[in-house]
From TrEMBL:
This is Rhodanese. It holds the Pfam family Rhodanese. Residues 19-108 form the Rhodanese domain. The lineage of its organism: Bacteria, Bacillati, Cyanobacteriota, Cyanophyceae, Nostocales. It comes from Trichormus variabilis SAG 1403-4b. InterPro entries: GlpE_sulfurtransferase (IPR050229), Rhodanese-like_dom (IPR001763), Rhodanese-like_dom_sf (IPR036873). CDD domains: RHOD. SUPFAM superfamilies: Rhodanese/Cell cycle control phosphatase.
Length: 109
């Protein structure tokens, strides 16, 4: 049942450009790293807090895209979310680096 869903950054960027996204982007890196640069609109939930905060911070009926320091980090976060009952979880392939490569919007200092 641990089918790993991987989202392509180009597809995600297209969805955002069409506006009104019915999804949430979660950055599971630590807060310091998040503050220094993240995908525009991504919410910060460090991986250590993910299990405890997911149910109150995220909507189960929305699609969730997650990224972290590297692919394994994102995969672990997706596994935590699925274990918490979130069914529509995808990992952003290449994370922030891939996002920046295609000119995706970012925020941070």
């Amino acid at each position: 049942m641990s089918s790993s869903l991987v989202a392509d950054v180009q597809d995600l960027k297209s969805l955002l450009e069409w506006g009104q996204p019915a999804f949430t982007i979660v950055d599971v890196r630590d807060r310091y790293t998040y503050n220094h640069g993240h995908i525009t609109g991504a919410i910060s939930i460090p991986i250590d807090d993910l299990e405890s905060r997911a149910k109150s911070a995220l909507h189960k009926e929305r699609q969730i895209y997650v990224y972290g320091e590297h692919e394994a980090h994102a995969a672990h976060a997706a596994q935590i979310l699925r274990g918490a009952g979130f069914t529509d979880v995808s990992e952003i392939q290449g994370g922030l680096t891939a996002w920046k490569t295609i000119g995706g919007a970012t925020e941070g200092v």
